[in-house]
Write a structure and sequence with these properties.
This protein has an eight-stranded antiparallel barrel. It has no helices and eight strands. It is mostly beta strands.
Length: 108
């Protein structure tokens, strides 16, 4: 996983969304219309793992987190293929809900 700006498509059975993240030297920072994300990641060969904290930065009428809780800790596992990362994970704040995401690198 190269350092850079990634567009993110994500979802759970509760909904889906889009955002951006910047990955640099093991740190992730990003957000979407409602939620910001901060965390860490590591890559071993084609395998990626990440721990990401989320929380709301805005109140948007009619919008809710795809996890059902704005403040959450995600544990993600994924695969790196070129400039694309596909991953899935879970959060203790959203029991029984699987989170899936695809990151595609768009800039340095």
């Amino acid at each position: 996983m190269r350092n850079g700006l990634y567009k993110v498509t994500f979802g759970t059975p509760l909904g889906s969304g889009y955002g951006v993240v910047y990955a640099q030297d093991g740190k992730i920072r990003g957000g979407d219309t409602l939620i910001y994300y901060i965390g860490t990641y590591s890559v071993d060969g084609d395998n990626m793992s990440a721990e990401v904290d989320t929380d709301a930065h805005s109140q948007v009428p009619g919008m809710t987190s795809v996890l059902g809780a704005s403040k959450a800790k995600l544990s993600l596992q994924g695969r790196v293929s070129g400039d694309t990362v596909t991953c899935q994970g879970t959060s203790p704040q959203a029991p029984g809900i699987t989170f899936r995401a695809t990151l595609q690198r768009i800039a340095d």
